[in-house]
Amino acid sequence: MNWKEIKVSADNTCFLFDRKQIFGKSFLEVLKFHSPGLAPVKDDSGAYHIDTSGNELYSNRYSRTFGFYCNRASVIGDNSWYHINEKGDKVYSSSYLWTGNYQENICTVRNYNNQYFHINLHGNRIYEQNYVYAGDYKDGIACVKSQDGFYRHIDNEGKLINDKTFLDLGVFHKNYATAKDINGWFHIDKQGNERYNERYLTVEPFYNGFALATEFDNKKIIIDENGKTEIEIR
After folding, report:
1. In Å, how far from its chain's centre is CA 18?
2. Could you report the average pLDDT of every consecutive run of 10 residues in the chain (234 residues)?
3. How many other CB atoms are found less than 10 A from the CB of residue 4?
4. Shortest CA distance to 53 belongs to which of 83, 73, 33?
5. Which among 22, 69, 142, 212 could disulfide-bond with 137, CB atoms 3.0 to 4.6 Å apart, if both were Cys?
6. 3-class DSSP state of 17
7. CB of 38 within 8 A of CB of 30?
């Protein structure tokens, strides 16, 4: 059975294959299967993970479990958050107030002082700075918010990729990121330079050379990578 073809029921209590319930069991909650074919489930005994045969991977039970990413899964146990491997073993000694999912072998976490930073697969910090917020890595770059209230982009060693700061930021998608200054949203390149002078109420990432933007009168338009209006969305 290919795990990619296993679906979650509409009420999130069981798994379906060819639209038929499998494993002969319903759960209190299930989440979809992730590579290499493991899924988080919760029943009366607690939260854990199963394989594509419906067998539990380990005997441990948690308050909540999430999907495996980079062979690590975020779990809540004894009111603390950390990551486990496929045997249910904790993969590092620390615990956190919250943990994200590993992306590109790096994960964002929040400590008990509500400070964000990133750790590697072994649970070691990849830099010394603490942030008000830190997002997931995408193509080696992440968004972070510093104590001064500004957002910046950092690389996978924690170094700034440019000297620009913004009121808000998105991740890079096809070489450009969404950014916000006091005048509104726009797009920037990896040097932090604006692609055009206009500002918008909201902008989406570029999709094959074009992006949806909302003007301050709530009119929606499609712009190209140079900020030129292509069409109005009526």
Report:
1. 29
2. 94 96 96 96 98 96 97 96 97 97 98 98 97 98 98 98 97 96 98 98 97 97 97 90
3. 12
4. 33
5. 142
6. strand
7. no
